[in-house]
Amino acid sequence: MKKGFSLPAPSRNEPAGDGIAAYSVGFCRPPLHTRFKLGKSGNPKGRPRARKNVRTIVEDALKEPVKLTGGDKPRIVSKAEALILTWLNAALQKDAKAAALVLTLLRITGHLDEELNPEIPIVSNEQAAALLDDYVARNPLPRQRAPRRRHKEPRK
Description:
Blueprint lengths: L53 H10 L1 E4 L6 E4 H14 L3 H14 L15 H14 L18
Antiparallel strand pairs: 1-2
C-alpha cells in the first residue's frame, strides 16, 4: 500500500464532532476550501482553439473565391487559379519572369516529364564525338608531378 493513502478523504458534508473535517491535509489531500466547487469546472474557459500556422493561412487565402471577368460572362474561381491564369496570360504576352514561373510550375507538377525512347538517340554519334573532343580540348588533364619525399634519408 502506498504512503499517505490510508485514510479516506471525507466529503464536505461529513464534519467531525466539533465541525472540523476528520482527515489530515497532505499528499493528494488538498484542504477543503481549495477544492473545486461542486458544479463548477476547473477550466471555465475551456480548451483554447488551435492557432493557425503560416501554411494553413496561405492555403485558406488561396482557396478564397474571386470573380474573373473575361469572355462572355464573369466566373468565380479560387485565388490560386486566378494567380496561375494571370501568370499564363503574362507569359503569353512575352513576360520573361512570368514564363519562367510557368515553366517552373510545370516542371514541379510533372507536366514537362517526357519518357525518352531508348531506341532514338538524343545526339548522333558524330555529334557526341565532336562534343567529347571539344570538352577534352577545353579541359586538359593536369600534369603529373613527381611525388615529394616526405621523410629525410637517415644519415650514415
